[in-house]
Every structure is written in structure tokens, then in C-alpha cells.
Amino acid sequence: MAEAFLNLDEGVIAPPVSVRATGRWSLLVGAAAAVGIWVAPTRPLFLVAWVAFFVWLCVRASVARPGRSARIPVLPMVVGLLTTVLAAWNTPAQPLAALGAAVAGGLLPFHLWMEDLRRRLQWQEFLLLLLCQPGVAWLHRFVVENPTSLKGSLGSGVMVLFVASALLQSGLGLVRREPARALSAITFSQSCLLMAGAFAGHMGWESARVLLIATVAGSFVLLTIAGLLKDTYGVDQLASDNGLADVAPDLHRLFIAMGWLFVGLPGGLAFFAEDLLFHALLEHSTAATIGFLFATGLNGIVFYRVYASLFCGPTRPELRDLPSSAPSRRWRVALLTAVTVLVILGGIAPALFV
């Protein structure tokens, strides 16, 4: 974990240093496998991409915690193989299809392996996992090829369970102290909601895919900012005296703008997608609709809690003397700004993504 420390003898404040840097080539390998999951034209290639992605995750997790690598990192591989085998079948039975969706989407209790990976991976690596959304990719391929297999009472039951998992993740976000964990909880909550949309008919799945774009864009911006704050200022805990608005105004503006758009503030792509998803769920399940409203509301509260604990309040003296600008940071801020503008354009002209 990155830490900031003060050299009292020399009076020099050293910037935080990552214990285990993430190699650029390693990230490129993971990114290539993640892209393959989404664009693989055939089932065998999809299976290869899925296995390659989870092998990469397990290797990186083993490097992070070699003392425990023999036991827990095997679980993601088992999950990945199970869901891809189900996806490779031509006409899987509905119970197996529902099970595959639950496992792939991280439905309670299958979310536990995601949480284990979060603890083991660097924030850049875990961000790639969130951006890939392998469970949604699996469900997308299955729904497109088997549009009627998830209908009926079993599908409605799984839909309600996904909404319940979204509520659980939102609740976890309220109690987590680390910014990345709280933001990841919002991302998982949004992912569960869009997985529920797959069981809410054609309009539900169309709106869920639009919400996927907003979720990926929002989590990319917010978690990248959280990672930059950790690497630059050593801030890895929510506290009332972080007060980074004054020392990092560029990240502050981006964080608050994308955060409110991410949780469904009018004007962004997520607001349009959540409005469509609300009406689709309303036609299928009152319980799922009520849970959806509570989950989106809680996500807004979680975001505000994270924002206030990172950027509001007084600034600790040791944070004011740390470097606030670097060439690498400037191009990252430019990229994050472009993604935020894209989400706003999606809210103004959602037809670009529908």
C-alpha cells in the first residue's frame, strides 16, 4: 500500500511510493484479454479470452499475496470456467442459464471472489476488471443468442435477486472507509442493476446496455482519480481532514462532475438509462422496482460521502507540500475530462448510444 511519510531530520516530505508497481506490459495483456471477451466472434474464442483474462487476474493476485495464492485465486478460475461452459452450450436449460448469470454477475454470495481480487490487485488492475465487466459480457452474449431463455418466473426471481444484490453493495459502500472500496461498491451495485435489466424484456436489456456504458465511463474516471490521490498524496482512507479540493482542484472538479452523472443526475447518460430501466422493471416486478429506487438513492449517498471525505473540510499540512502537477497527471486529467464530456453528450443526445 502506498504511504506518505515525513523525514523529520531533513525536513523533506517524500511522496508516497507504491510497494508493487503495475507493469505496463502486464496491463496491456489484461486489456487485450478483456477486449477479446467483448469482441470474440465465436464461442471458442470467447472461451479462450475469458480463460486468458482470469489466468492473468490470478497471476497478478498471486504476485500480490504469494503467501495465500495457493487457495483463493483458484476460485475466479472455477467461476470463469463454469460460466463460459454454460455460455458455450447452444441451448442451456433455464435453471443452468440463471445459475450462469448469477455466478457471472457476482450475485450474492458469488460477489466474494470479486472482493478477494480487489484486496489482492493494484488499483489499476482492479479498475481493468471493473471496466471489462466479464459477467455482463457473458450475459450479453447469452441473451443475444438465446433471447427467450431467461423469461418466466425463474427469470423474474433472479431479477429480484440481482436488485437485492445491488442494495447489498450500496449498503456496503456506506460503511467502507477506503475510497476505492466505496466506489467499487457503487460500480458493483450499478452492474447488478443492469444485470437485472436483462430479465426485464427487450427494453430492459437495451436500457441496461446504455447503463453499462455510463457505469464503465463513471467507474473509470472516479477510480482513476482515487488511484491518483492515493499515489500522489497517500490518501487511502476517508477522513474529514483530507480537504483535497484546494491542493488538487483539477481532480476535484472532475470527481464531483462525473460522480453526480455516474449516480444518475439529470443531464448525464446514466439518468437516461436509469429512467428507461425503471419503466422496464415496473412492467415486470414491483419489488424489483422499489429495490431499484432504493439502490440508486443509496448510491448517490455513498458518492457524496466519498466526495465530502476526500475533498471537503480542512487540509492536513503534510498534504499541502506534496507535488500537485506532473506531465503524466496532465494527460490523464485530459483523458478523464474527455470521458466526462462524452457522458454529458450522451445525456444530451442519447441516440448516439442507443
UniProtKB/TrEMBL annotation:
* Record field: transmembrane: 45-63, 70-89, 95-114, 126-144, 156-175, 182-204, 210-229, 254-273, 285-312, 333-353
Q: Does the keyword Transmembrane helix apply?
A: yes
Please give, as recorded in its UniProt entry, the membrane topology of this protein.
Multi-pass membrane protein
Query: What is one term from the GO cellular component aspect held by the record?
Result: membrane
Q: Which domain of life is it from?
A: Bacteria
Q: Which UniProt keywords apply?
A: Membrane, Transmembrane, Transmembrane helix
Localization: Endomembrane system; Membrane
What region holds the NADH:quinone oxidoreductase/Mrp antiporter transmembrane domain? 97-297
Keyword Membrane set for record: yes
Q: What is this protein called?
A: NADH:quinone oxidoreductase/Mrp antiporter transmembrane domain-containing protein
**Species for this entry:** Stigmatella aurantiaca (strain DW4/3-1)
